């Protein structure tokens, strides 16, 4: 069933049944329309209950859903007047990490984030959201620019990880990530990061060392992919579900551990079912967090951010 | 414990020849048989081919610092915060690692001098769970940095890690920004921070404090990189170039200032500290 995840099968069956009834309803007979609305209520309830009790591995599937809203969708539904800026000034333009000026409500901000792409062509162009050194160096450049002009920084994190390749290593992938983390920590302006899909390891933390770290309800954030962890510790990637469980990758787990500050609720059945609403909910949360940081001086902003990371203790 | 058992414990990757007297070890690089005592006296570097073997934290501190240094106490951190269990419980893996190592985790800090110049040296030990970075490693790194700040001394960190301590999940990832807070403080305080990359340094350690030094030194042949070689091969399905991710390769690509042999490390550090003397805070 196209677009449905494995565990959504019962919902998919109900929705298929509803569609079938609809198309077969020649006349709007009372019988059929009441049956349809009964099934619709049932389907909505089933969807809500399914999503209320997702396992960490199921959440990983949702976070990676091909129709999950990505950077460009949030640009459309959360922000206004995005003005993209390109290039790291050393090597090239990496479209896995996008950035530029944008408006969030009345606020002018610097917006930076991973873009995974939504079809084959765009996925290749954005390298599936796996940033290369030039992408992280562009992020550093834009953060420094924002710092100099007093613009708060918002990052949208959505990557399976930084790109593992020969050229990325040659150009200093590790150094670029380390410097990007350092640039986050040095910002004299407020920074809010939102893990919107996958927060994959160093490639994520390089854009998420912020004053406030938000996480979408069904996003995941981890030090290594569940498959990677499973293949090392269990010696088979098939134990990914166990690894996801053991590593504590969900928004609720990470809130308890003090790693994230706020969970941003998603539309019923996940952000991929309603990009507009997902974008609005994220926008409200970002505005609230930026407002709470607005009164701080540069020194306070830096100090709060440092203390935030120094005090994480599990 | 006699000197040989001690050597054996610090050399987990060097197989010993199966002889009753156990006096010889085989170099993993040139396969030459080397007299253990000679090998140890040569700082665990193969006298035949120059292969730099892995060494434990205590030996490393001994090599780098002047006599009479202090070893900082291991910081207290939440143990097994996730109650992690794979095929084995994390607490059992920790217990096992501690039984084989004189220290409670993979990062040990010595505070003293190098040829008279104040220095704090942090050493990551690959022999303890692959040097992996968890909360104890992060906390010890930060303690070392704080000691350098308090003493207005140089901070020198010898890195070695297979990557993150997966059993601590996201909390291991959080050590990257945490350590970076401290490298920034050293910089602001006008103190030098020098990284010595030893074999192997990969993953989140490389992508944080190992690449933020004022000076990067590397031991010859050390494997240094972000992504693991198997991961890269699985992703790009290409042959990796000769010497890929080795110290000399990083030097050629501009990521390392100096490739320095172990026997010259202390002297080179001392030379560097002549130039990098503590400055007034920024
Ligand atoms: Zn040899």
From TrEMBL, chain A:
Known pathway: Lipid metabolism; malonyl-CoA biosynthesis; malonyl-CoA from acetyl-CoA: step 1/1
SUPFAM superfamilies associated with the record: ClpP/crotonase
Keywords, comma-separated and alphabetical: ATP-binding, Cytoplasm, Fatty acid biosynthesis, Fatty acid metabolism, Ligase, Lipid biosynthesis, Lipid metabolism, Nucleotide-binding, Transferase
PROSITE patterns listed in its UniProt record: COA_CT_CTER
InterPro entries linked: Acetyl_CoA_COase_a_su, ClpP/crotonase-like_dom_sf, COA_CT_C
Keyword presence, Acetylation: no
EC number of the protein: 2.1.3.15
Subcellular location field: Cytoplasm
Subunit and partners: Acetyl-CoA carboxylase is a heterohexamer composed of biotin carboxyl carrier protein (AccB), biotin carboxylase (AccC) and two subunits each of ACCase subunit alpha (AccA) and ACCase subunit beta (AccD).
Name under which the protein is recorded: Acetyl-coenzyme A carboxylase carboxyl transferase subunit alpha
Source organism per UniProt: Qipengyuania atrilutea
Taxonomic path: Bacteria, Pseudomonadati, Pseudomonadota, Alphaproteobacteria, Sphingomonadales
The encoding gene: accA
UniProtKB/TrEMBL annotation, chain B:
Recorded catalytic activity of this chain's protein: N(6)-carboxybiotinyl-L-lysyl-[protein] + acetyl-CoA = N(6)-biotinyl-L-lysyl-[protein] + malonyl-CoA
Cofactor: Zn(2+)
Cofactor note: Binds 1 zinc ion per subunit.
Zinc finger (C4-type) residue numbers: 27-49
Pathway: Lipid metabolism; malonyl-CoA biosynthesis; malonyl-CoA from acetyl-CoA: step 1/1
EC number: 2.1.3.15
GO biological process, one term: fatty acid biosynthetic process
Pfam families assigned: Carboxyl_trans, Zn_ribbon_ACC
Sequence positions that bind Zn(2+): 27, 30, 46, 49
GO CC field: acetate CoA-transferase complex
PROSITE patterns, sorted: COA_CT_NTER
Every CoA carboxyltransferase N-terminal domain range: 23-282
Keyword Lipid metabolism recorded: yes
Cellular localization per UniProt: Cytoplasm
Keywords tagged on the record: ATP-binding, Cytoplasm, Fatty acid biosynthesis, Fatty acid metabolism, Ligase, Lipid biosynthesis, Lipid metabolism, Metal-binding, Nucleotide-binding, Transferase, Zinc, Zinc-finger
Molecular function GO labels: acetyl-CoA carboxylase activity; ATP binding; carboxyl- or carbamoyltransferase activity; zinc ion binding
Family affiliation: Belongs to the AccD/PCCB family.
Protein's job: Component of the acetyl coenzyme A carboxylase (ACC) complex. Biotin carboxylase (BC) catalyzes the carboxylation of biotin on its carrier protein (BCCP) and then the CO(2) group is transferred by the transcarboxylase to acetyl-CoA to form malonyl-CoA.
Subunit note: Acetyl-CoA carboxylase is a heterohexamer composed of biotin carboxyl carrier protein (AccB), biotin carboxylase (AccC) and two subunits each of ACCase subunit alpha (AccA) and ACCase subunit beta (AccD).
Name of the molecule in the record: Acetyl-coenzyme A carboxylase carboxyl transferase subunit beta
UniProt organism field: Qipengyuania atrilutea
Lineage: Bacteria, Pseudomonadati, Pseudomonadota, Alphaproteobacteria, Sphingomonadales
């Amino acid at each position: 069933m196209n677009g449905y995840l494995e565990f959504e099968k019962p919902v998919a069956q109900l929705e298929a049944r509803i569609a079938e009834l609809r198309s077969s309803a020649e006349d709007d007979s009372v019988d059929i329309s009441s049956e349809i609305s009964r099934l619709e209520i049932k389907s909505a309830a089933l969807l809500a209950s399914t999503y209320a009790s997702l396992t960490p591995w199921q959440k990983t599937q949702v976070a990676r859903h091909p129709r999950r809203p990505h950077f460009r969708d949030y640009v459309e539904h959360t922000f206004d007047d995005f003005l993209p800026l390109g290039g790291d000034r050393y090597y090239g333009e990496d479209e896995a990490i996008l950035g530029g000026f944008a408006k969030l409500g009345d606020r002018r901000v610097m917006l930076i984030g991973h873009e995974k792409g939504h079809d084959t062509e765009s996925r290749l162009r954005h390298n599936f959201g796996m940033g290369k050194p030039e992408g992280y160096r562009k992020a550093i450049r834009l953060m420094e620019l924002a710092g100099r002009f007093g613009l708060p920084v918002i990052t949208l994190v959505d990557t399976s990880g930084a790109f593992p390749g020969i050229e990325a290593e040659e150009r200093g992938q590790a150094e670029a990530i380390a410097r990007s983390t350092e640039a986050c920590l040095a910002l004299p302006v407020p920074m809010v990061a939102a893990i919107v899909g996958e927060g994959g390891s160093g490639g994520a933390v390089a854009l998420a060392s912020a004053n406030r770290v938000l996480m979408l309800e069904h996003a995941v954030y981890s030090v290594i992919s569940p498959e990677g962890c499973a293949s090392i510790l269990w010696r088979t990637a098939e134990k990914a579900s166990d690894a996801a469980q053991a590593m504590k990758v969900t928004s609720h787990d990470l809130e308890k551990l003090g790693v994230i500050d706020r969970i941003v609720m998603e539309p019923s059945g996940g952000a991929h079912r309603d990009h507009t609403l997902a974008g609005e909910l994220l926008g409200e949360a970002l505005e609230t967090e930026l407002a709470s940081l607005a009164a701080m001086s540069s020194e306070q902003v830096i100090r709060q951010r440092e203390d935030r990371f120094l005090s994480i203790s599990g | 414990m006699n000197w040989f058992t001690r050597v054996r414990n610090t050399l987990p990757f060097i197989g010993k020849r199966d002889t009753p007297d156990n006096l010889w070890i085989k170099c993993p690089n040139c396969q030459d048989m080397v007299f253990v005592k000679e090998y140890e006296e040569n700082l665990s570097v193969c006298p035949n081919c120059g292969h730099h073997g892995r060494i434990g934290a205590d030996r490393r501190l001994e090599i780098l610092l002047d006599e009479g240094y202090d070893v900082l106490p291991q910081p207290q951190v939440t143990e097994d915060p996730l109650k992690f269990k794979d095929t084995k419980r994390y607490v059992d893996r920790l217990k096992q690692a501690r039984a084989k190592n004189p220290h409670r985790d993979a990062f040990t800090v010595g505070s003293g001098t190098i040829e008279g110049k104040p220095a704090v040296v942090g050493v990551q030990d690959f022999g303890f769970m692959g040097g992996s970075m968890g909360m104890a490693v992060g906390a010890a790194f930060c303690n070392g940095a704080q000691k350098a700040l308090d003493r207005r001394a140089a901070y020198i960190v010898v890195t070695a890690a297979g990557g993150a301590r997966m059993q601590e999940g996201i909390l291991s990832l959080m050590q990257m920004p945490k350590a970076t807070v401290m490298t920034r403080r050293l910089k602001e305080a006008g103190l030098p921070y020098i990284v010595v990359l030893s074999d192997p340094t990969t993953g989140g350690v490389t992508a944080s404090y190992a690449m933020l030094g004022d000076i990067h030194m590397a031991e010859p042949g050390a494997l240094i990189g972000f992504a693991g070689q198997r991961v890269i091969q699985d992703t790009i399905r290409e042959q990796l170039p000769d010497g890929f991710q080795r110290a000399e390769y990083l030097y050629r690509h501009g990521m390392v200032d100096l490739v320095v042999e172990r026997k010259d490390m202390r002297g080179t550090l001392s030379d560097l500290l002549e130039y990098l003397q503590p400055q007034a805070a920024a």
